[in-house]
Structures are given as structure tokens and as C-alpha cells.
Design a protein that fits this description.
The structure holds 2 protein chains of 2 kinds. Chain A is mostly helical. Chain A has one domain (about 5-110). Chain A contains 3 helices and no strands. The N and C termini of chain A lie far apart (about 60 Å). Chain B is mainly α. Chain B has 3 helices and no strands. At the A-B interface, helix 1, helix 2 and helix 3 of A face helix 1, helix 2 and helix 3 of B.
Chain lengths: ~120, ~90
């Protein structure tokens, strides 16, 4: 493998690890479930895409079938992670999870009513 | 005797393991269910990263299918937890 490719793979791996580490630090430090989702869904998606891109570049010349599967995994990650975190934050808002005390404005309040307690579990 | 990429991937592996421990701490102390769900989602992300680093360190594609599968299963887990929180049932 030429040294330029090795340096590119190493750079991709280091940047991806940095983004995943930032996501987990944000998960630990931010005050609110919505703030934590903000950190995880942005940094986590980009970080894991770069981390999968490392083996894709590494195996691209030797085993291109595996590299194709890695590209497919990146595509799925970009499709599914924002949808999953959006669903989870909507569920958290609707079921009245507490916002942090430092929340300045809650613009969603007039559009999305919280579910009354008796509706949950029926339908 | 280790190549350049092996060294780099082992360093990244150490950082990813510390990130996984941080996520596990949030899973333990998380005040409510949505915190734990989002922490488990991040933990799946960290596991995907660890598998990729091991693929490069061992120069083997033996475990690379697990990346593909963890991507899909992680989405299904988070989506079903969200639906359970919102509607009180999964299906």
C-alpha cells in the first residue's frame, strides 16, 4: 500500500475518533436530554461515517465487496440516525420530559401538545 | 514490530474505549429512559468504531459484516424505544 493512502486512512480514522469522543463528552456534560441528542446525532453520525470510511479505503483494492458493504453501511447510517434521534426527541417532548432551567424559549409548545396521561397505553 | 496503521488504530481504539466508558456512565446515571436510549445509541456507534479499528489492525474483514448489521439494529432499537415511550406499546 502506498504511503499516501496510509496517511489518508490514518487522518480519516483520527478525525472520526475525535468526533465520536466529542459526542460522548457532550452526552456526559450537557444538561438536558434534547441537548444530549443534539450532540450525539450530529457528531456521532459524522464520526461513525468517517470511522467506517477507514476500512473502506483500506480494503478497497484487495476486497472490494467488503468495501461496498462499508459504503452501504455509511448510507444507512446517514439515513437512519437523524430519523431515530428525531423520533426519540419527539417522544421525549410529547411525554413531558423536563427541559433544563436555562431554556430561554420553547417554540414547539404552541404546535405540539403533550399527551394527556390517560391516552398513553390505549388507542 | 508493528506497522504505522496498526499503531494509529490502537491509539484510536484506546480513545474509543474511553468514550464507551463515558456512554456507559450516562447509561447508569441517566435520569430517565430517553437519556438511556440515546446513550445506548451512542454506545452502538462506539462499538462500530471499535470493530472498524480492529479490522484495520488485524488486516481482516472477518468482523466487518457486524458493522453493517449493527447500523440497522441500532436504528430499530432506538425507533422502537421512541414508539414505546410515545404510545405505550411497540406495535
Amino acid at each position: 500500500m502506498p504511503p499516501v493512502t496510509e496517511i489518508i486512512i490514518a487522518a480519516v480514522m483520527i478525525v472520526g475518533t475525535f468526533f465520536v469522543a466529542v459526542a460522548s463528552i457532550g452526552l456526559l456534560r450537557l444538561p438536558d436530554v434534547f441537548c444530549r441528542m443534539h450532540a450525539v446525532s450530529k457528531a456521532g453520525t459524522l464520526g461513525v461515517s468517517l470511522l467506517i470510511l477507514g476500512p473502506v479505503l483500506f480494503f478497497f483494492t484487495s476486497e472490494w465487496g467488503m468495501a461496498l458493504r462499508g459504503l452501504l453501511a455509511i448510507g444507512f447510517q446517514f439515513l437512519t440516525t437523524p430519523a431515530a434521534t428525531h423520533l426519540l426527541s419527539r417522544a421525549a417532548y410529547v411525554t413531558d420530559y423536563p427541559l433544563t432551567e436555562r431554556t430561554a424559549v420553547d417554540e414547539l409548545e404552541q404546535f405540539l401538545d403533550s399527551v394527556p396521561d390517560e391516552v398513553v397505553g390505549q388507542e | 514490530m508493528s506497522t504505522f496503521l496498526e499503531t494509529i488504530s490502537m491509539c484510536c481504539l484506546a480513545v474509543l474505549m474511553v468514550s464507551g466508558l463515558l456512554c456507559l456512565y450516562r447509561v447508569i446515571i441517566g435520569p430517565n429512559a430517553a437519556d438511556r436510549a440515546i446513550a445506548f445509541d451512542t454506545l452502538a456507534t462506539v462499538f462500530i468504531g471499535i470493530i472498524c479499528m480492529l479490522c484495520i489492525a488485524w488486516a481482516s474483514t472477518l468482523y466487518f459484516d457486524a458493522v453493517w448489521i449493527l447500523t440497522l439494529v441500532g436504528f430499530l432499537g432506538t425507533a422502537s424505544i421512541a414508539r414505546y415511550l410515545e404510545k405505550g406499546r411497540v406495535f
